Amino acid sequence: MPTKTHHKIKITINGEDFELDDGEYTGAQLKAKGNVPPEEGLFLKHGNGREQRIDDDEVVKIHPNMVFESAPDGGVS
What we know:
Low-confidence stretches: none
CATH topology: Ubiquitin-like (UB roll)
Distance between the termini: 50 Å
Radius of gyration: 13 Å
Mean pLDDT: 90
Number of helices: 1
Strand content: 35-45%
Largest sheet: 5 strands, mixed
Shape: globular
Structural class: mainly beta
């Protein structure tokens, strides 16, 4: 039986690039990967300028070139 190969996907957290295995990650896992302090909020930046808050227990299916930013728990300015 063939083994499933994991593709690496590049994402950006606070301006730093990371390569993660293709899949789903919680907000807390993404924060840990990006060395984001647990008390800060994590936000997904959309191309239209919109920002989406990602809660620690929220599951995100990552896609290439996703951009995340953290901010003190109040929002990205």
